Amino acid sequence: LREAEEAAPVFQYAGKAAKRKDRVFVWGFSYSGALGVPSFVKPDVGWKKPRRIQATPYRLETEEKISSVACGYGFTLLSSNTTDITKVWGMGLNKDSQLGFQRSIRDRTKGYEYVLEPSPIPLPLEKPQQTRVLQVSCGRAHSLILTDSEGVFTMGNNSYGQCGRKVVEDETYSESHLIHQLKEFDSRVVQVVCGQDHSLFRTKKGAVYACGWGADGQTGLGHYNITSVPTKLRGDIAGVNIIQVSSYGDCCLAVSDEGDVFGWGNSEYLQLASVTETTQVNVPRHLPFKIGKIKEAACGGTGNIVLTEEGNVFVWGYGILGKGPNLIETAVPEMIPPSLFGWSDFNPDIRVAHVRCGLSQFAALTNRGELFVWGKNLRGCLGTGRMEDQYFPWRVTVPGEVVDVACGVDHMVSMVKSF
Amino acid sequence: VRGPRFRRLKIGAGHRLDVKASGVFVLGIGHGNKLLTDLYNCHLTKVYTVGGLFGKATDDFSDTGKLVEKTTFDHITREKLERILAVIQGTNHKALLMHSNIDMKTQEAYELAVKGLIRPMGKSPPIITAIRCLQFALPEFQLEIHCLHETQQYLRKIVHEVGLELKSSAVCTQVRRIRDGVFTLDDALLRTQWNLQSIQNAIWDCQLKVKTELEKTLGHQDESRLHETDAAMAHAADS
């Protein structure tokens, strides 16, 4: 018997240099096309049924390695930092050309209103084989694409100037070929963020520019009118080196290099109630929270979340905040116990590494690559496999190590490294 | 002078232990059997050290079985193993919350989850509450597994699956239970200590621990039962 064992052939499944592959997983509401799987909406084989909601993570095949993802209100943008000609793909709603002009195959003069699978977005680049796309961001009906040497490209709805160009009355946004390019900032733009109908730009020097709708003060420029040209913000962040900005609804947060957090915009849900009683704040205000140095912040529709240097997660605002069904609203940040993220005496070095926000959902990534979600489970967007709302952080089972996640209104997309 | 004499002893066993496995094995004597059922209803975790070997796959997942396949394993690092263990822990944690039959929408569920006290209190498939790597020296490795409602064969299957996930194969060389609820290796009696005096001492020592654990988990405990356990010790008159 021993000789038979010795003589058996040895199989090799993976060599020493086996690389870990990068994958994209999507889940949530599929009928808008935002998941990029056309067979969910229009089954290609007779026995398949249309899948309205994908409740658990589903792998999306992409042609290139995707480096940045953004989820808007019913659409998604994927971008790769390659030097090939095609750098950005979009899928989902395209009624305001937020995915650029997608030429219809049936009628060459018309464009698609719904894009069901990741389709390339042609960008008017001067040097298409040298410029790299660094980051993408999506709002309600507009999108921003950040490149390393050619500024920011904006497309989509511009009725409030959120694309950074002058508002044209009665402009039809659907089937529009117009992609605007923004270059005049005090230094290179390093981060772009889309709110619901406004845009924020963060430059290398630490300044923040804004344009778009301002009726809730979300442009932070001291007035409640719309702005169609990106203008620098002042207020409490004048002269402060901002290292991160975040927004998704009508409230905005900015984090400085010293760990302070500043907020402006809508405060109807107590997001800024720690500094003011008014429901709209149109100038950035410093939020004096004594919770430690803040590393990252994320804004949702009605709730906000911050991550401190020690790895603790604090939430405040309104809605399902993640501390059980009894905590519906708070103006002062409350900490979520680390034991809910898997921390225990057995695993004392688990820390939360990133926090992200959707419209009414929160997501947290730990340093072990696990994804925790909580909030309103709108059309299965939490990815837990259940349709009920989740009142405290719950693990999402993803076959791989989650590197980044983008949250939308009713869908989420994550970038995952395989094992 | 005559004292009470017992001619027959009722002995019951706690959680099962395989022929190939070793470790802590809880026995109840006489009236202690009733305590055994109570302890079973507490659903406390058991801790095992499981030894494994990379490179082989057998039909019954242990190293004495029939060989199915041999694979290379030099690409495996401790880091990869720990990543896989983190995933296993994650999915089992989810299963823990789901089988505990508590409504996730209540404040009570949230509080129990924070403290880590959510446990399935009824029947459930085997769940691993914690797993970590103690030793790693290719091709051998050793894991410490805390689990509920498991069988030793399930643990061997876990070793096999870890091997598959790492794109190789593994067999289980050793399964040793080091803790069963409140009873640890220190309380256990060795083969040489299987005599009346040591057994009596062991029962006395464990009494307090068992009592506190039962009270904590089941809420109320009949005091009188414990007194009967002492009285149940006498000559081992089983024929």
TrEMBL record, chain A:
Primary location class: mitochondrion
Task: Decide whether keyword Transit peptide is in the record.
Answer: yes
The UniProt entry annotates RCC repeats at 22-82, 86-149, 150-205, 206-258, 259-310, 369-418
Where does the source fall among the domains of life? Eukaryota
Query: Which GO terms of type biological process are on file?
Result: mitochondrial fusion; positive regulation of mitochondrial translation
Molecular-function GO terms, alphabetical: guanyl-nucleotide exchange factor activity; rRNA binding
Q: Does the keyword Iron-sulfur apply?
A: no
For this UniProt record, the keywords arranged alphabetically read as follows: Membrane, Mitochondrion, Mitochondrion inner membrane, Repeat, Transit peptide
> Cellular component GO terms, alphabetically?
mitochondrial inner membrane
- Positions of the RCC1-like domain: 19-301
**TM spans, by residue?**
none
Where does this one sit in the cell?
A: Mitochondrion inner membrane
Share what the entry says about its subunit structure, partners included: Forms a regulatory protein-RNA complex, consisting of RCC1L, NGRN, RPUSD3, RPUSD4, TRUB2, FASTKD2 and 16S mt-rRNA. Interacts with 16S mt-rRNA; this interaction is direct. Interacts with OPA1; this interaction is direct.
Task performed by this protein: Guanine nucleotide exchange factor (GEF) for mitochondrial dynamin-related GTPase OPA1. Activates OPA1, by exchanging bound GDP for free GTP, and drives OPA1 and MFN1-dependent mitochondrial fusion. Plays an essential role in mitochondrial ribosome biogenesis. As a component of a functional protein-RNA module, consisting of RCC1L, NGRN, RPUSD3, RPUSD4, TRUB2, FASTKD2 and 16S mitochondrial ribosomal RNA (16S mt-rRNA), controls 16S mt-rRNA abundance and is required for intra-mitochondrial translation of core subunits of the oxidative phosphorylation system.
Query: Which protein, by its recorded name, is this?
Result: RCC1-like G exchanging factor-like protein
Source organism (scientific name): Aptenodytes forsteri
TrEMBL record, chain B:
Which GO MF terms are attached to this record? pseudouridine synthase activity; RNA binding
Pfam families, per this entry?
TruB_N
Q: Which SUPFAM superfamilies match?
A: Pseudouridine synthase
Q: Gene3D superfamilies, per this entry?
A: Pseudouridine synthase
The cross-references to InterPro entries, in alphabetical order and at most eight, read:
PsdUridine_synth_cat_dom_sf (IPR020103), PsdUridine_synth_N (IPR002501), Trub2 (IPR039048)
Q: Which domain of life is it from?
A: Eukaryota
Residues in Pseudouridine synthase II N-terminal domain copies: 8-151
GO BP annotations, alphabetical order: pseudouridine synthesis; RNA processing
So what family is this one in? Belongs to the pseudouridine synthase TruB family.
This protein's name: Putative tRNA pseudouridine synthase 2
Protein source organism? Aptenodytes forsteri
